[in-house]
UniProtKB/TrEMBL annotation:
This is Glutaredoxin. Gene3D superfamilies: Glutaredoxin. Residues 12-92 form the GST N-terminal domain. It comes from the Archaea. Pfam families: Glutaredoxin.
Amino acid sequence: MPMQHVDGENKGKTVLFALSTCGWCKKTRMLLEDLGVEYDYIYVDLLEGEERQEIIQQVEKWNSQLSFPTLVIDDKETIVGFNEDKVREILG
């Protein structure tokens, strides 16, 4: 299961690492959609085997605590957890 793409306004490369069962992840997705931002997301808990290991290593590069949601913007800015103010500041 590769990244899922959501169309919207391109505000830079925006990638959301999430869990399918996580309420804060869902709120982050809803916020991105409210802002009309183009983004990709992946539900890490739905991956298996090598694919899962690869994605977990990617997340750990951005967030050593491996918590969700982890939102990565343009491969340089990371927002860990649901942080509406920071998301709006960067992508709003």
